[in-house]
């Protein structure tokens, strides 16, 4: 009985590296919370909802890409900070 709750908690938690949840990485949006299941009035047409959803997926992809490039640059800067420049000549052992 507790396994689905634990799975939901893990899938909706935000990952520190990429800044989004595992569920959002796979689907492009956050999982529905209990408050999201409350019925609300629909003021938008289906095409507007689809357009908004596609825009959110695109923005999600761009944020992940930017975050990944920033993390890679940070990792490279950290690795280069500890690197020593070595030059070798012919005959060195």
Walk me through the structure.
- The protein has 93 residues and is mainly α.
- The chain has one domain.
- It has helices at residues 3-12, 22-27, 46-81.
Q: Helical region count?
A: 3
Biggest β-sheet strands, sense, barrel = none
Number of structural units classed as domains: 1
Average pLDDT, all residues: 81
Given helix and strand content, the structural type is mainly alpha
Distance between the termini: 65 Å
Order of SSEs: HHH
Please give the radius of gyration in angstroms. Answer: 22 Å
| Total E-strand runs | 0
Q: Roughly how much helix do the residues carry, as a percent range?
A: 55-70%
Form type: elongated
SSE arrangement:
Layout: H1 3-12, H2 22-27, H3 46-81
Write a concise keyword list for the protein shown above:
about 90 residues; 3 helices; mainly alpha
């Amino acid at each position: 009985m507790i396994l689905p709750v634990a799975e939901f908690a893990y899938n909706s938690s935000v990952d520190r590296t990429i800044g989004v949840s595992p569920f959002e990485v796979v689907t492009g949006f956050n999982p529905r919370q209990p408050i999201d299941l409350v019925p609300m009035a629909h003021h938008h047409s289906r095409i507007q909802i689809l357009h908004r959803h596609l825009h959110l997926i695109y923005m999600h992809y761009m944020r992940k890409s930017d975050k990944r490039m920033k993390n890679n640059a940070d990792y490279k800067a950290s690795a280069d900070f500890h690197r020593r420049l070595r030059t070798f000549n012919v005959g060195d052992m």
